[in-house]
Amino acid sequence: MVRRRAREPRLPGAGRGGRPRGPPAGLLTARPGRRSRLPPRVSNLLLLAATVLALLTGLATWFVTTDDNRWVVATHGAVGLLLLLLVPWKQRVVRTGLRRRRPSRWLSLLLVALVVVALATGVLHATGLATRAGGQLTMWWHVASGFAVAALLAWHALARRQRLRRTDLDRRLALRAAGLAIGAGALWLATSAATHALALPGAARRPTGSYLLARPRPTIWLLDSTPDRADADPATWQVRVDDADGSRDVAVTALADSSDRVRRTVVIDCTSGWASEQPWTGVPLAALLRPGPDDRAVVVRSSTGYTRRFPLDRLDDLLLATDMADAPLDVALGGPVRLVVPDQRGFAWVKWVVEVRTDPGPPWAQSPVPLQ
Ligand code: HEM
Ligand SMILES: Nc1nc2c(c(=O)[nH]1)N[C@H]1C(S)=C(S)[C@@H](COP(=O)(O)O)O[C@H]1N2
Ligand SMILES: [Mo]
Prior knowledge:
Number of domains: 2
Number of helices: 8
Order of helices and strands: HHHHHEEHHEEEHEEEEEEEE
Largest sheet: 6 strands, mixed
Radius of gyration: 26 Å
Shape: elongated
Distance between the termini: 38 Å
Bound molecules: protoporphyrin IX containing FE, the ligand Nc1nc2c(c(=O)[nH]1)N[C@H]1C(S)=C(S)[C@@H](COP(=O)(O)O)O[C@H]1N2, molybdenum atom
Structural class: alpha+beta
Helix content: 25-40%
């Protein structure tokens, strides 16, 4: 990238922007007969803004569960495709930058490669042209490359910091930004229309963008691990229950025999791009717990330490399930006992539950996504 600022002489009377008042840059530098280009620092910052927006809207899709919020997923798709429109602008900057042969140019090129992977996996997933690759779902690679982009981008933007000049924020930039937003929306509509017209698998995505599978896919959030099969024995597994009545152990065998058992059909929808609708059988937390007057949350903890909190008004909906599709839960799917959480993405569905307790802390006092 060009660092022109550093080489510019400081002119008397120049403000913090480093440029004397006068006609905007575009008027001076535009070549006749050619559409004037945005200064490289402006293209760079637009690209940075679009990438950050792609990351933020991508994360926002993790909180979508219903059709009402489908627009969040669509917005992310459009913002992602916006990056495609910005590639031609960046080419010139990249070419100039590479000529400088900085040792860190390899990291910058890796960043470009990761953005390309994120773009490609996004489109392959959304259209359904390739929903798996290398033993993982395409969406898993999408999220992984997205986070790698975030890390490298933070470095890249700091290392190649550039400041906008006041004269950059002109009408031309506003028109360009509006044009890009319209272009991105049109590109998203075109991809979506083509997916349906060609009856690609992507046409059958859920509002979250996930594909329905006949069975859940055993999934670990980040660094957690599945307990040994031998340790996950329904005959001996206990759940510690702690509430206004004190603390006691409830055996999975007791849950399996309980007269409070219900069977409910609920979709589990994982952020790695799959979902599955299953009948789950178990005991609602409302039948197990009695909150005290000061309690505001219920805390559910796994034998692995993986923990999520929920508001007390969800006690009727939250199920401690021992069975899926009328068979005992396999250990890979959270057996002997897991949480079923209607209207929350898969990461809230704590597997291998060993503790449920009421708690005076607020339900939101946790990281929005698990860190384990
Ligand atoms: C540099 C970062 C990213 C880029 C460039 C990007 C780009 C894209 C693109 C181009 C699509 C396909 C849009 C379409 O054809 O309809 C897409 C889909 C998707 N992306 Fe990203 N993305 C990024 C980061 C993320 C992150 C961090 C997440 C999640 C945390 C995420 C979640 C999703 C989801 C769920 C879809 C599927 C949407 C659907 O099925 O309609 N993305 N992304
Ligand atoms: N203890 C524990 N529970 C967990 C996870 C985990 O890693 N550890 N992964 C979560 C995620 S991300 C999903 S999508 C579901 C997956 O459930 P499954 O393996 O039965 O498909 O479990 C959730 N519960
Ligand atoms: Mo998940």
